[in-house]
Design a protein that fits this description.
Three copies of one chain form a homotrimer. In chain A, 50% of the residues lie in helices and 6% in strands. Chain A is mostly helical and 470 residues long. In chain A, the strands form three sheets. In chain A, strands 4-5-8-9 form a four-stranded parallel beta sheet, with helices on one face. A three-stranded parallel beta sheet of chain A has the order 1-2-3. Chain A is globular, with a radius of gyration of 22 Å.
Chain lengths: 470, 470, 470
């Protein structure tokens, strides 16, 4: 007898009836606001080509490292989950992979993945029983059948989801053809790009030289000279702006920045392109490039995002067999106070710059990030990120940043996902958690209720538009 | 139509009716207790001269870095807020500065500044509408009118605020004339000093040599010799004790302490006064001086406070234009376990010493500070400090220290402020938050209610008196 | 008039009536489950000899560093509390020591010690008034009288406490005679050992060479050769397995691991046994030995525990007078992401290994430990430990690990205690706090109630049995 799947309308609201009542009222104001998604990893080709998605595994399981990392931690090999290795997709039948997942769905109790998925199952697919071993096939078939219908094509879902703008993320040598195709198609959905130049900025990237070569070809610049290299970035930033981008993004191991003299920068660059550099020089080059990117942001008006602090590919055996981004990235302690100083010394007082900083190290919220954001005109705090994009994580973010940085040095929500179907659920979780936080302030008479209504709309909608210049 | 300003009598209490009811009862026991303010930064001249305050900006905005740092973070130049630069006060009309502030008061939603200010506006000035653009002039005029009346002179406010003792903080070359004048005046208000010798202890202080010179003149000691330098400290500590001081205070970048041999200390001192030292030697000298100060505390009975962990003057452009203490200090990770060891090895078991330690790094509460305070007889924990002097910060302090250090290795509240008018509000916030914490313990049957009453009074009043020997 | 001691049946449950009601129902399912104690420090001789305990001080105060560290922090010398020094037990009358404790019992308000003790006083001894100066003698006499009765002999208590299995911890040269005697006696209580080889793995241990010598004698191996030394560990692990052990335990200053080549390991070992090594070599040897222990765990199936991060014997004067484990250990920041990598690179993907990691640095819960445990098949998270084995500590553990690691990469509760009488109370606190956490998830509609029931039983009973292979 399968157990019912029920989304309670008050989920994520505090249990106390009076606080819940305030949370509910606040949420009513924001629940139907359009979704602004200024940072994420969906594939623009979905919207360019508008072809149907395949099946539940291909759409929901195989691309979602939140899911398969948990299953892997409990001893399930990635191959049995349909996750591709460096050798290509495994032979596993999708239905069999889905059963593996379904029979272990209890592992996700208490995790945001369960919240997101249950909302997708219920609201997107209309499923009314819980996922478990006994309902695995029912799910697989129901999802497969739905995906074959026009209502589940990417553009139809985009519209159904009430997405006002969706930012994707592309590398420095992307031709942005998908974005051009979307615009040419006449479809009015606003899908924009984001410039993420890591592969040509990180000398330790496994394909740095190769991508740098293409970067030169695409831009016609001599990217082996410091001037030409910077100029190539300028050209590509302009290309991205034409593809709607209003932001860049930088995913470095640390938040280190540098402010070298021009000649120092040039000679460091020469070392880096020669391939004869030590790790500290690679780190210094990445650091210097953040400051260069900030300088260009002031020139071209693009918002700058820094996502630092992940130890990437922590598991070398898995990296060898399956490549990067397979759930083996782990946060590490991250310094901001000293790391950001060179960049802030140079540009921190310049209100033309918007530098949005994220963290995987929650101990920095109250100690470093809120104090920095509560002082520097250029600095804003990105929302709770990745492992912390969760109800408890979002609550800690507000509790630990608001008193020093306020609400207005934060930038609303990022869904930051490649799981397209979960976008409404992710925004919904954040809207609910923010309303719950505001409701507590109201109920404890720390904020008048009328101001909480204004703030709720700011957090759910206006701040993201304003910060990302959308 | 201005919106009403209402201070709810249950503010900061948990929303659950049964917990709130306990919190309310506990708070009734402590709300009217006299204020003991053992550490702060008000100006003793206010009480010596008892002259009227000027206007709202001069009193409330321009000296309060909590306020102008937030406004600055949103792009408002300090000059427009009436904040003095190194060149002197700006030409901005106070009324105009106040309007800048008032029109952006929403930035402070959810911050302790808003809690404190609203209580000042309502309870001290009797204002009944909220601060916003439309009420800026009403506020400016009402505050100005009030300040011109005798009831708003410093001594009258001191009495109205029910302050039992107020400690100010003076540098090592202060002549303590204001304190002498207060005592000579016959006014019975107890305003005492605190010895804060940082400028003659920190070789990297921008005026170290100059202040050291005056230090020698004042004391008649040869402060260029190690013996004379220490003797000068002893003399000044005695002067401060005569001005009522029961404590010293030390605001170093780190909590580092050292316990050098006498000859090592002497030769380090020689280097430091010669001006030919490297940063590590400056750090070692500050570290050694904490241990020297602890030794003197055992001799003269003065309580010792350490306020470490601020990266001072993080913004060099602002420092150049406006000087120190302009909202550009940022916390940094702070070690205590290794840093305090030399001092604790020497004096940690000596119950004659009271060493009160503060932190800006909340990750140390449960990891380092509570375990240290729960063991060493000499060590006590100062309350949640600066960026953490806030409802959420105080709650985290109790939640993260009590289980290991108990309540009785903490020392009650410090308002630590130069914002004189906010002192009652600051104590009130702390009393409410502590009562809320105790009410939760009572409601969860983790503490009998009668013990919570005793503890509430200890936290609000007795612990501060006992720890600071008042 | 002594005040009544009352254990409220709803203690530790949230105050909100609806959440409390769920917590109460969940707790009803788990309150009477047998106690599984897979890690602790009781003395197996108690159960081998089954002799009566002495008096309240000998049983409850003198061995409990949680208690005497707090009293010491408030200036009470250890001698007055009956705590033995290196010179032996002090002359203090036990009744007098107990009075010292009783008269300061208020120091423990809000601490887990008070929760545990009150439950022991009430449920084990049936005392109905609170401990304070006036009831000190009443307590001392009542406890003394009870201990003289057969119902308070160790085995009777073990049975009354409904302990299914109790693990003790022994050193590498323990002859395990107590465990053999228990088995020979025919008493059915399951008391098992745990292999804790720190004294022969830590070259900086004060008796490393001496213990190593005995280690060689006991095993008949040439423990001054690398092969023989490893073989001796294998032999002793097998001895411990015969004494019921299913786990090893390792209490290193850091979580550092290493994966040296065989020849590197051998030459490092030669240095270490020669006594001519620097601290970094001692650290490297400990690090290498964790990886060796993991290798042996894969061979023999023993679960491996790492308890890192304590700065042991922080107070040298107390260490000199009273020796180790006297309440002067202090946590320090602990790295896991880099420290565990060599071991994880080698064995982290091997599901045959169960490596249970603990921390004293709560900032690592969400940043490092939950992400690592949510990925590596070999890694599991031990429960909130030592200073964090408390209601707030357990709540933070769940709030900061569940969203990334789930419940099923954690291993249930460890009481980790030498305070035998407090074992039921400690498990009860954890069961209550976990039920309170689950009740919040249920009440906020983040988990269906039926799943919370299953999970509650897993947390209270099944996970510990499964993880420790009991």
């Amino acid at each position: 007898m399968p157990r019912p799947l029920v989304l309670h309308p008050d989920r994520l609201f505090p249990a106390d009836p009076s606080v819940r009542s305030v949370a509910r009222s606040l949420y009513e104001q924001v629940r139907s606001l359009p979704l602004v998604s200024p940072h994420g990893h969906t594939d623009p080709n979905w919207f360019a080509n508008n072809e149907p998605y395949g099946n539940a595994v291909e759409l929901l399981l195989a691309p979602d490292h939140y899911l398969y990392r948990m299953l892997y931690s409990q001893g399930v090999p990635l191959d049995r989950l349909g996750v591709a290795s460096r050798a290509g997709p495994p032979a596993t039948e999708p239905r069999e992979a889905w059963r593996q997942f379904a029979s272990r769905y209890a592992l996700f109790r208490g995790t945001p993945s369960a919240l997101w998925l249950d909302q997708v199952f219920s609201e997107v697919f209309g499923i009314t029983v819980r996922l478990e071993a006994d309902t695995a096939d029912l799910y697989f078939d129901a999802i497969g059948a739905a995906l074959a219908t026009p209502a589940f094509r990417p553009r139809a879902l985009f519209e159904r989801f009430n997405i006002e703008v969706l930012a994707t993320t592309e590398g420095p040598t992307d031709r942005l053809e998908a974005h051009a195709a979307i615009r040419r198609s006449g479809w009015p959905g606003r899908v924009i790009s984001t410039y993420r130049p890591d592969p040509v900025i990180d000398p330790e990237h496994e394909r740095f030289r190769e991508v740098l070569g293409r970067f030169g070809e695409m831009t016609g610049e001599d990217v082996l000279s410091w001037r030409g290299y910077l100029q190539a970035h300028r050209r590509r930033r302009a290309d991205f702006a034409l593809a709607g981008a209003t932001a860049t993004d930088h995913g470095h191991p640390s938040a280190a920045t540098a402010d070298l003299s021009d000649s120092e920068a040039q000679s460091l660059f020469d070392k880096v392109v020669s391939g004869r550099f030590v790790p500290a020089e690679a780190e210094l080059f990445r650091a210097q490039m953040l400051t260069e990117m900030a300088r260009m942001s002031i020139e071209d008006g693009m918002v700058m995002q820094i996502h630092p602090g992940a130890f990437r590919n922590h598991n070398p055996a898995l990296f060898a067999s399956h490549g990067p981004d397979k759930g083996a990235d782990v946060p590490q302690p991250t310094d901001y106070v000293r790391a950001l100083k060179p960049l802030l010394d140079r540009f921190g007082n310049d209100a033309r710059l918007t530098l949005i900083v994220f963290t995987l190290d929650e101990s920095t919220y109250s100690r470093e990030l809120a104090p920095l954001a509560g002082h520097y005109p250029a600095l804003k705090l990105g929302p709770a990120w990745w492992f912390h994009d969760s109800p408890e994580g979002m609550r800690r973010f507000r509790e630990q940043t608001t008193e020093t940085a306020g609400f207005y040095n934060t930038v609303g929500f990022n869904d930051d996902t490649r799981a397209f179907l979960s976008i409404p659920a992710r925004h919904d979780v954040c809207r609910r958690v923010d309303c719950a936080f505001l409701a507590r302030l109201v109920s404890e008479h720390r904020m008048p209720e009328d101001e909480a209504y204004e703030t709720a709309v700011d957090l759910a909608y206006r701040l993201a538009k304003r910060a990302y210049r959308l």
